[in-house]
Amino acid sequence: MTAIQQDRTTRDLKSIAEQAGRDLEDASAPEILQWAVDTFGGKFCVTSSMEDAVVAHLASRARTAGAPVDVVFLDTGYHFPETIGTRDAVEAVMDVNVITLTPRQTVAEQDAEYGPALHDRDPDLCCALRKVKPLEEGLTSYDAWATGLRRDESPTRANTPVVGWDEKRQKVKIAPIARWTQDDVDAYVAEHGVLTNPLLTDGYASVGCAPCTRRVLEGEDARAGRWAGRSKTECGLHG
User: Fold this and answer.
1) Of 31, 52, 81, which is closest to residue 194 (Cα–Cα)?
2) Of 45, 126, 127, 235, which is the active-site residue?
3) Closest to 26 (Cα-Cα) out of 186, 184, 182, 179
4) How far, in Å, CA of 173 to CA of 169, rounded?
5) Can 235 be counted among the known catalytic residues?
6) pTM score > 0.85 for this model?
7) SS3 of 15, please?
8) How far are the Cα atoms of 84, 147, 161, 232 from residue 150, in angstroms, in the given order?
9) What pairing do the DSSP bridges indicate for beta strands 97-101 and 163-166?
10) pLDDT at residue 1 greater than cutoff 70
């Protein structure tokens, strides 16, 4: 099946999302991504935090007659060097088109307007400025986007659909590995030699911006190291 390139209304997209959510619940991750490429063509992208390149690798294997799948990365200006290095490695070795989004303000410009270390004083605003807004702008030309969300990561993600409707952005949202466990991820990485962020072998179970990420302790869930000591559990990209 060739990729379908056409303009769809919001109603059309929502209907597609709802039907696919039912039809693809038990489909494999490669099948879900192939469906996305076939259905949306160049209006589909994958987003990656470069914690690992599993979804990017899956997307690189989806058969398409057009250009490689776009892999969108948010460079917040606060990433660990290892994260930027993973992004560069993905761009160099995978058959994908890496697109780097940046906030409207540099860190220095944000510090000048809001004061230094906004992430310590108002992490929600910092995430809004450096993650949520750039992604909203970056997704404008797409009808559908895929993420690496998994149901086992945290209670807030336990009901993640494999295909759903992103009401805030009015787009189809795809989570091809939603049903995977960490063991599934590890097995896929080992089998295919997929790039992973070096920090994952240095005590970090989830990798975000450096000022708001710490190593996890034994027995903690994977996202306990994100915004530790705060009630905040998500950056706002997914809810």
Assistant:
1) 52
2) 235
3) 179
4) 9
5) yes
6) yes
7) helix
8) 23, 9, 9, 18
9) unpaired
10) no
